[in-house]
Structures are given as structure tokens and as C-alpha cells.
Amino acid sequence: xxxxxxxxxxxxxxxxxxxxxxxxxxxxxxxxxxxxxxxxxxxxxxxxxxxxxxx
Length: 55
Prior knowledge:
Layout: E1 21-24, E2 32-35, H1 37-42, E3 46-47, E4 53-54
């Protein structure tokens, strides 16, 4: 199992703000995806190492 993400996968911002989240990649289930509140709200795309891309 991978470690919990500490930075946003899309922007690289540290996940310290309220509203930040981490979850396993829906494509591979292995990599931890991190999302900052700003990227989540704006729908900024992210890409996992396996190639899965999400909003």
C-alpha cells in the first residue's frame, strides 16, 4: 500500500489547508492522489503514474 500523499498531485502545493483530500487512484488503486481545495474546486486535471487522468 502506498503512503498518503502530502502534496497536491496537480499543483504540488502542500496539503495542509482545510478541505484537502487524498485517495487511491481509481485506475490502479496503488498510488495515493492528493488534491488541494483550490484544484478540487476548479476541476484542475491530475494524472497518476499509471496514466489515469481525472478532473
